[in-house]
Task: structure prediction
Amino acid sequence: MKLRTAVLAWITALPASLLLARVHPFGDAGLFAATHPAHPTSIPPQADAILSAKCVDCHSEQTRPHLYGRFAPISWLMERDIVEGRKHLDLTAWDTYTPDRQQTLQSLILKEVRSNEMPLPQYRIIHPDSAMTAADIEALTSWAHASTSNELPSATTEGDSAAGKLVFEKRCTGCHALDQSHEGPKLRGVFGKPSAQVAGFDYSPALKSSHIIWNETTLDKWLTDPDAFAPGNNMSFGIPKPQERKDLIRFLKDSR
Ligand code: HEC
Ligand code: HEC
Result:
């Protein structure tokens, strides 16, 4: 009896599904299939291999046509993920992003894969081999930090406060101000103080329990990769260039 019901359900669902996929053809994820033979990017091969294997279906114009993607309602769900995914990150367009945008996205990619948010869980169920391995995460981390390595640390140990102010205005004021908390806490006087001391700011438990004293060394680590330094914190944003970090730290030190 149970078997017969299941078979019946399929017999009725299958044509319905085929029909629906045609009635709403935009929902046929097969139509999203690769529009470019390959994505031209400056991403180095090791990181590119991981992103190409595990992320391109939703984050590029190289979506591979999967058979299941031809059937509603799965195709509709996929359509939404692909449209949304490309909006946030389109690997095909990587080389057209500004260096600033690329750095922001690299920070976000690290955050998403470390917290196990990406690839989306529903995708991992269908593609079990798309789950991120520790080696993948390490490779993506060194990619995100790599823009750093070919830049020698400057001869001066002191950063330049005026240059730091410019970096601050460009890279930090989206979330921070010196005298007012926004998405991030206000930062005047942060240098020399323990972490998570701004009254009324809703810090993550991770930062609250970290007991960091903000100085040249700790700020440098934090600004290189906050997630590696204080795992689980809420600031997913790094500055890969050592000179920019040095200038920023000098600026924060002078803004007391
Ligand atoms: C099944 C489709 C799918 C796959 C596969 C997928 N993503 Fe996503 N991704 C999405 C969607 C949808 C969003 C936007 C909504 C959200 O953040 O959940 C997104 C958002 C993102 C964002 C932006 C987050 C933000 O806060 O702006 C990043 C970064 C990201 N994904 C990285 C990755 C990486 C890296 C991979 C591969 C390891 C990956 N994604 C695989 C669908 C996908
Ligand atoms: C996307 C938003 C965002 C950006 C961009 C950002 N931050 Fe943050 N920042 C935060 C959040 C949120 C916190 C609090 C983190 C927590 O509670 O885990 C934080 C915390 C901090 C702290 C610790 C403050 C304290 O009271 O202990 C410092 C220092 C800091 N940010 C510096 C910077 C600098 C410098 C920049 C620019 C290079 C920057 N941040 C860019 C969101 C951001």
The two ends are 77 Å apart (CA to CA). Residues 18-149 form one domain. Confidence is low (pLDDT under 50) at residues 5-11, 19-31. The chain has two domains: 18-149, 161-254.
